[in-house]
Amino acid sequence: MNRYDLAVYIGRFQPFYDGHLACVRQALDLAANLVVLVGSINRPRNIRDPFGYAERREMIESALPADLRDRVVITGVADRLYNLSSWVAGVQGAVDGIVTAVAGGEASITLVGHRKDHSSSYLDLFPQWDFSPVEPVSMLSATEIRDVLLGEGASDLDETLAAQPLPDGVKSYLRDWIGAEPDAWEALRQEWAFVRRYRSQFAALPYPPIFQTVDAVVLQAGHILMVERGAQPGRGLLALPGGFLDVEETIEDAVIRELREETGIKVPEPVLRGSIRARARYDDPQRSLRGRTITDAFLFELRPGPLPRVKGGSDARKAQWISLAEFQSLESRIYEDHYHIVQDLLGRA
C-alpha cells in the first residue's frame, strides 16, 4: 500500500543518470504515481544545459523500466531566476494540473529529493507537501558526467559512455543523439574547452576571482536593443550589450562605453545618461559559465521616435532592434540570464 497518491521529483537531469533513476524507484515505493518535473526547459544549449526539454524527456522515458512507465508523468517548468515566486507558482500549477488529471482533483503528495548543498534549497519552498528524503546512489554527479563526455574525443565516445553511471537506455540515446547532431555536439565541446582554458588562467590564485560586468537594457518605441555574440561562450546567441568593468571607470561609465562599442548607437552620451530609468544588480552564483560574475544592469528608455541606427562592434557580431513581443518568445536563444534580467527590470520601470 502506497503512503501517497503522488510523488514530485524536480531536477534538470543533464543528463538523466543512475542516481536519478534510483530516486525514481524510491519515489514509486512511496507513491502510486510520480511527477518528474524537468527544470530549465527554455535554456539555450550550453555546457551546463546541453540537452533541451524534449531530449531530456526522451532520455527519461528510455531509462524507465517497462513496469514503471505507466506510473510516471513527465512535464517541464521554466526558470524564473529573479522571480522565485513565479517559479514556485509554475511548479504548483504543473502539479495541480496533473493531480486533476490523475487523481481527480485531490491527492496526498510528497516531494522527493536529496539535500546535497545550497542548490537543494528549493525543497523548502513547498510546505503544503510532505518531504521524503531519498538516498544518493551514484558517486558521480551529472556535472562530472558532462565533463567526462565533453572532454573526450569522438573516437573514445563508446568506451566513455560505457564507463558512465547511466541507464542503458540513456547511453543508447546519447550515442544516437551525438551521431545525429554532430555540429551541436562539437559546438558544446568547443565551448567546454574554451571555459576550461579561461578558468585555467586563474587556477594559481589563492581565491577564485569574482568578475564585475555591466549590461544595458535599451528600450525605444516597443523595441529592445540586442546583440548577437561573436565569441565564446554563447557564440551566436542573443545578448544584452555589455561587458567587463575597466579598472579606472565607474559602473555607469562602463555601461555607456560598452553600449556604444557593441552597438554604435547614434544617440549622444548625455541623452543616454539622461535616459536611465532603473538599475539593479544580478548575482546568481551560476549565472555565468566563466565563473563567479556579478553584473549591474541599467534600463534605458529612449523617447519614442525612429529607432536609432545600430551596428555590431567589438565582440558583437551584429546589433539589432527586436520588438518586445518577439523578445518574449526568444528565451531559448538568449545568453546566460539576460532574458530574466530584462523581465526583472521591466517590472521595476
From TrEMBL:
Protein name from the UniProt record: ADP-ribose pyrophosphatase
Does Nucleotide-binding appear among the keywords? no
Transferase recorded as keyword: yes
What PROSITE patterns does this protein's entry cite?
NUDIX, NUDIX_BOX
* Organism domain of life: Bacteria
The record's family statement is: Belongs to the Nudix hydrolase family.
| All copies of domain Nudix hydrolase, residue ranges | 209-349
A Pfam family assignment? CTP_transf_like
Recorded hits in InterPro entries, A to Z, give:
Cyt_trans-like (IPR004821), Nudix_hydrolase (IPR020476), NUDIX_hydrolase-like_dom_sf (IPR015797), NUDIX_hydrolase_CS (IPR020084), NUDIX_hydrolase_dom (IPR000086), Rossmann-like_a/b/a_fold (IPR014729)
What GO MF terms are annotated? hydrolase activity; nucleotidyltransferase activity
**Taxonomic source organism:** Imhoffiella purpurea
Q: Which UniProt key words apply to this protein?
A: Hydrolase, Nucleotidyltransferase, Transferase
PANTHER family to which the protein is assigned, alphabetical = BIFUNCTIONAL NMN ADENYLYLTRANSFERASE_NUDIX HYDROLASE, PHOSPHOPANTETHEINE ADENYLYLTRANSFERASE
User: What are the names of the required cofactors?
Assistant: Mg(2+)
